[in-house]
Amino acid sequence: MQKWLRIELRDSSCTPSPLIVRSYQRNRKTRGLLGFGILVQSVLPDPQLDLRLSRLRMPIIEVRNLTKHFGVGEMAVEVLKGVNLQIEEGEFVALMGPSGSGKSTLMNIIGGIEPPSSGQVLLDGMDIGKLDDEQRTLLRRRRVGFIFQAFNLIPTLNAIENVSLPLQLDGVPWKQAQERAQIALQRVEMGHRLDHVPSKLSGGEQQRVAIARALAIEPVILLADEPTGNLDSRQSSRVTELLRDLAMYSRQTIIMVTHDATVARTAFRLLKFKDGNIERDIAQEDFEANASVFHASSVQNATG
Ligand SMILES: Nc1ncnc2c1ncn2[C@@H]1O[C@H](COP(=O)(O)OP(=O)(O)OP(=O)(O)O)[C@@H](O)[C@H]1O
Ligand SMILES: [Mg+2]
Q1: Each residue of 135-162: pLDDT tens digit?
Q2: Which residue's C-alpha comes closest to atom 4 of ligand 1?
Q3: Does any ligand 1 atom lie closer than 6 A to the CB of residue 48?
Q4: Which domains does the chain have, with CATH numbers?
């Protein structure tokens, strides 16, 4: 069902302001068609305006003082050192940084796969640390799509079975799950390999199946850990265009880890990670002025 809200803002003297903000209700089915977000029809200079608008928007991902260490005592390794981060709906964020700096660890914690040592992750305002196992499983199945660095395909299932399995686990009828899986595989040009098991696919093809599996559930948040690491440049730009379109037109929120400067430049925002924390946070309009950041130390190791 389609619904939308009309909000009239008033200025501080309570005179109705000519600013009208329309906000479409979060409805994932219609979102892509209608466009989701806030349309400002007319704006008069109003010093309170930014403040009021920012209150209407809530980050879909919020990370607060996040730390993570592995091991105990003298053997303990501190991997995340108090990360703070806010990402809004529809953002497409590239995460770069040296190998071993903690990028995958951060993604795993945001996706509820790994618990933090301290701090919080809020998804749509919900503290995932407070969810029980079942709620966390549902979150991963319905709202958060993962493209893992190591693919994590099930070796005994063919491509279409790997992609349709999460849908079926979520109660989607078999036929519908097959159709959605096939469409997702076609989007990554894997429509011709539906019945191949992972061992009969190349590394890049397995990666594309893993991408299709994440796309098929139409996640609100997509966490992609080096999604183009095994792809040639044509496939790589196809996949990054696909991700950018999902963020732009379907308002999916995407964090993409990459070591590839060309891939990172397709995002709307760059986070440069170093030694367990965010070193730089650069908006797309400032990419050119910060061109060196895309290359500096992106492939050195964390201590380099
Ligand atoms: N389960 C674990 N137990 C112990 N140490 C771990 C574990 N997982 C990760 N680490 C360590 O945490 C550090 C960060 O690892 P992480 O995988 O997050 O790095 P990364 O930035 O994703 O690197 P890459 O670019 O190579 O994928 C590494 O030094 C790694 O050895
Ligand atoms: Mg990694």
Answers
A1: 888 888 888 999 988 899 999 999 999 9
A2: 70
A3: no
A4: 4-56 (no CATH), 89-115+129-294 (3.40.50.300)
